[in-house]
């Protein structure tokens, strides 16, 4: 009887100990599950940049931007365009000595995978107050920094992809991104409202839409590549295989594109691949937002009027 009682007491203690361990085991399981979920999430985030979400080539968009009143509006419009493009990665490089919290917040809220970079344009390369906006090349330092980031990031993680240099003030049809996606070397298409013409760019003959027969431009038609920055895309292998190709402040206006493409090993515009139904469609427009008029605001400021507080910047 004593032995039976001891066995029963031992069984009770074992059940009690097991019962006491259950909450601990449950919490351990929950903790391990949480850690596993978090690790999986961060691993996906870490590798999503290098592994496309589908088998189609990725489009890297390189955008040089600079602080101004309409900057946020321009980037918001481009963001809303890129949100409708699959397998795209946005590299935004700002003309600034410091990182812009406003720009970074906009990019985070956009929903498009992105990298934010910043570098300031050298003082001696900035346009003077009395100079027209087109007198000096813009975005040189920013585009070169973006190219350096691409080469450092993708050199040993190559994947089918193309590079497109997209200014933040242009207007883009969604179709242009699908046209450029399968670029073999360098593809091109006409650009609307460019070069003081209704459109400029490549021309093909009615009998052969697969080859460019001429370039329709008014400004310096004898350039090796009389083409607007918005009118071409480059296969990423060319970018990675020609690390010396970049933009240069010493090149005059209109020759930045030619120098860049020549640095990629191309010799003549006839080597470009015509897109947009054999250069028959306008899918991008070289638009420019007018500076907003703030005459009323300046008048109110001179009268000592203080605007109501607002959380969001313009």
UniProtKB/TrEMBL annotation:
It is a single-pass type II membrane protein. Mn(2+) binds at residue 169. InterPro entries: Glyco_trans_43 (IPR005027), Nucleotide-diphossugar_trans (IPR029044). It comes from the Eukaryota. Pathway: Protein modification; protein glycosylation. The record marks 200 as: Interaction with galactose moiety of substrate glycoprotein. It catalyses: 3-O-(beta-D-galactosyl-(1->3)-beta-D-galactosyl-(1->4)-beta-D-xylosyl)-L-seryl-[protein] + UDP-alpha-D-glucuronate = 3-O-(beta-D-GlcA-(1->3)-beta-D-Gal-(1->3)-beta-D-Gal-(1->4)-beta-D-Xyl)-L-seryl-[protein] + UDP + H(+). The active site is at 257 (proton donor/acceptor). The chain crosses the membrane at residues 25-44. One of its GO terms (biological process) is chondroitin sulfate proteoglycan biosynthetic process. It is an enzyme of class 2 (transferase). Its cofactor is Mn(2+). One of its GO terms (cellular component) is Golgi membrane. Its main location: Golgi. It is found in: Golgi apparatus membrane; Membrane. Its EC number is 2.4.1.135. Keywords: Glycoprotein, Golgi apparatus, Manganese, Membrane, Metal-binding, Signal-anchor, Transferase, Transmembrane, Transmembrane helix. One of its GO terms (molecular function) is galactosylgalactosylxylosylprotein 3-beta-glucuronosyltransferase activity. Belongs to the glycosyltransferase 43 family. This is Galactosylgalactosylxylosylprotein 3-beta-glucuronosyltransferase. The lineage of its organism: Eukaryota, Metazoa, Spiralia, Lophotrochozoa, Platyhelminthes.
């Amino acid at each position: 009887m004593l032995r039976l009682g001891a066995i029963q007491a031992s069984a009770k203690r074992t059940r009690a100990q097991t019962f006491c361990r259950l909450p601990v085991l449950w919490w351990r399981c929950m903790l391990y599950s949480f850690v596993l979920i978090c690790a999986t999430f961060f691993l996906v985030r870490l590798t999503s940049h290098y592994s496309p979400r589908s088998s189609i080539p990725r489009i890297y968009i390189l955008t040089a931007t600079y602080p101004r009143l309409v900057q946020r509006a321009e980037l918001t419009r481009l963001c809303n365009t890129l949100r409708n493009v699959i397998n795209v990665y946005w590299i935004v490089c700002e003309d600034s000595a410091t990182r812009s919290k406003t720009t970074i917040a906009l990019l985070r809220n956009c929903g498009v995978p992105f990298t934010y970079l910043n570098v300031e344009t050298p003082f001696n390369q900035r346009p003077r107050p009395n100079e027209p906006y087109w007198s000096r090349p813009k975005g040189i330092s920013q585009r070169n920094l973006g190219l350096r980031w691409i080469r450092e990031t993708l050199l040993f993680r190559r994947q089918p992809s193309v590079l497109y240099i997209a200014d933040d003030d242009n207007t883009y049809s969604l179709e242009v991104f699908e046209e450029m996606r399968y670029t073999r070397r360098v593809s091109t298409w006409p650009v609307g409202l460019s070069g003081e013409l209704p459109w400029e760019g490549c021309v093909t003959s009615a009998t052969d839409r697969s080859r460019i027969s001429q370039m329709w431009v008014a400004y310096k038609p004898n350039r090796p590549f009389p083409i607007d920055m918005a009118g071409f895309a480059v296969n990423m292998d060319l970018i990675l295989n020609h690390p010396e190709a970049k933009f240069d402040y010493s090149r005059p206006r209109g020759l930045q594109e030619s120098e860049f493409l020549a640095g990629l090993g191309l010799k003549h515009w006839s080597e470009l691949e015509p897109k947009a139904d054999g250069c028959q469609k306008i899918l991008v427009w070289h638009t420019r937002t007018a500076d907003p008029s703030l005459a009323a605001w300046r008048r109110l400021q001179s009268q000592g009027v203080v605007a109501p507080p607002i959380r969001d910047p313009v």
